């Protein structure tokens, strides 16, 4: 039994607590812990190898056969991952490769900082999508509007995003001037992950929160406003003010999968209006008695919000149907292989 599974106050326990370890993790780890097992948190994932932060330092470990993500809590047996603790939250998007399983961006996340540059023309739609992703994960989203020093009308941007993310805290920040950095630091509670497009200034903001130039940053192209992927992998780094920060590569595409609850929370204004529709299965198109369409026509709800909600719902439903079809095809393929192997075995016996 290792020290951090008990309630002592050894330095190991104190260090682990700075990474997010608490009594509930200790209780989960107890039944899984073999003699000599060491708890730690995954800070970086490479092919078959992980960097794990433990109470006595950073350990490079073999992660096979476990599928791990940055933020996972594990138990180490020497330099091998012996067990993985159940996740509290999982930030995941639909796999861009078309595979059935989702791509996990980070595990056991408390706060998702949805970063978007103030001058971005596509900020509203991108924010809605990322906020839905964050809500679905079980974490709390915070919208962070970056590079406000380049924007002539920050107030208008904040007002627009407040409508696009009802009930979500919106923070404006400029790392150049220092305005808003303390506000972002206050919003970064527990395990915090930065998500957003390339060029949003995530790594620059992360360095400001870390108090040092820990992460590489790159210039944004003037021709199209897009940035290079200066962050090429996800990494968990302790914050000097407490908690940990996960920086992620820029997300060009954010597909939703099994995200119905997250979408509803991101569009709470539309969902509230939908309660007044005549039909419970109203699609908010041409049905009589549609409260959502009436709100649009009366100027209470922007048409863009209605269309964005319906678009994300359709996308989520399509992803679910595609996944079901792919799983069915995979099952058929497995049975075909089993049948083929059996026939080959029968033929071999008859020779």
Automatic annotation (TrEMBL):
Binding-site residues for GTP, renumbered to this chain: 146-149, 196-204
Subunit composition and interactions: Monomer. Associates with 30S ribosomal subunit, binds 16S rRNA.
PROSITE patterns associated with the record: ENGC_GTPASE, G_CP
Enzyme Commission number(s): 3.6.1.-
Protein family membership: Belongs to the TRAFAC class YlqF/YawG GTPase family. RsgA subfamily.
UniProt-annotated location(s): Cytoplasm
Database matches in HAMAP family: GTPase_RsgA
Function: One of several proteins that assist in the late maturation steps of the functional core of the 30S ribosomal subunit. Helps release RbfA from mature subunits. May play a role in the assembly of ribosomal proteins into the subunit. Circularly permuted GTPase that catalyzes slow GTP hydrolysis, GTPase activity is stimulated by the 30S ribosomal subunit.
Main subcellular location: cytoplasm
Gene: rsgA
Residues annotated to bind Zn(2+): 277, 282, 284, 290
UniProt xrefs under Pfam families: RsgA_GTPase
Limits of the EngC GTPase domain: 107-252
PANTHER family: SMALL RIBOSOMAL SUBUNIT BIOGENESIS GTPASE RSGA (PTHR32120:SF10)
Keyword terms of this UniProt record: Cytoplasm, GTP-binding, Hydrolase, Metal-binding, Nucleotide-binding, Ribosome biogenesis, RNA-binding, rRNA-binding, Zinc
Names of required cofactors: Zn(2+)
The species this protein was found in: Actinomycetospora flava
Co-factor remark: Binds 1 zinc ion per subunit.
Ranges of residues in domain CP-type G: 98-254
Protein's UniProt name: Small ribosomal subunit biogenesis GTPase RsgA
InterPro entries registered for this protein in UniProt: G_CP_dom, P-loop_NTPase, Ribosome_biogen_GTPase_RsgA, RsgA_GTPase_dom
Transferase as UniProt keyword: no
Broad EC category: hydrolase
């Amino acid at each position: 039994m290792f020290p951090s599974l008990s309630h002592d106050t050894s330095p190991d326990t104190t260090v682990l607590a700075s990474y997010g370890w608490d009594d509930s993790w200790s209780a989960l780890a107890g039944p899984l812990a073999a003699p000599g097992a060491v708890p730690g948190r995954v800070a970086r994932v490479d092919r078959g190898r992980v960097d794990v932060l433990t109470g006595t330092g950073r350990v490079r470990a073999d992660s096979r056969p476990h599928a791990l993500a940055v933020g996972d809590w594990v138990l180490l047996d020497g330099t091998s991952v012996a067990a993985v603790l159940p996740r509290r939250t999982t930030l995941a998007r639909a796999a861009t490769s078309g595979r059935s399983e989702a791509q996990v961006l980070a595990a056991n996340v408390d706060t998702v900082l949805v970063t978007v540059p103030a001058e971005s023309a596509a900020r509203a739609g991108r924010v809605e999508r990322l906020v839905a992703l964050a809500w679905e994960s079980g974490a709390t989203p915070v919208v962070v509007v970056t590079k406000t020093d380049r924007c002539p009308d920050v107030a208008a941007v904040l007002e627009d995003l407040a409508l696009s993310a009802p009930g979500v805290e919106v923070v404006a920040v400029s790392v150049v001037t220092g305005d808003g950095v303390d506000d972002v630091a206050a919003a970064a509670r527990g395990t915090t992950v930065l998500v957003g497009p390339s060029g949003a200034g995530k790594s620059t903001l992360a360095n400001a929160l870390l108090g040092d130039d820990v992460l590489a940053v790159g210039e944004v192209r003037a021709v199209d406003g897009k940035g290079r992927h200066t962050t090429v992998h996800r990494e968990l780094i302790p914050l000097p003010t407490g908690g940990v920060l996960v920086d992620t590569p820029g997300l060009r595409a954010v597909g939703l999968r099994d995200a119905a609850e997250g979408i509803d929370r991101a569009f709470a204004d539309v969902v509230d209006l939908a309660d007044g529709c005549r039909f419970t299965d109203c699609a908010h198109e041409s049905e009589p008695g549609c409260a959502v369409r009436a709100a649009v026509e009366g100027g209470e709800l922007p048409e863009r919000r209605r269309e964005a909600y319906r678009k994300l719902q359709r996308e989520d439903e399509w992803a679910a149907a595609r996944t079901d079809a792919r799983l069915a095809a995979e099952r058929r393929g497995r049975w075909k292989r089993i049948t083929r192997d059996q026939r080959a075995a029968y033929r071999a016996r008859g020779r």
